[in-house]
Amino acid sequence: MEEVKVVVAHDECATLRVGDVFLKIDGDQSRSDVEVEAMAMAPVP
Description:
- The chain has one helix spanning 29-41; strands spanning 4-9, 13-18, 21-26.
- By secondary structure, it is α+β, with helices and mostly antiparallel strands.
- The protein is flat.
- The protein starts with a strand and ends with a helix.
């Protein structure tokens, strides 16, 4: 199992790193929804 590292954490969200993957956990679903929409529109290199 990969080690989980806390990259940034405060009262609104946390960003974790698991191996080469970053995971953002946000307490406000609407902010997460906006970020998902933005990522869906971004071109993939």
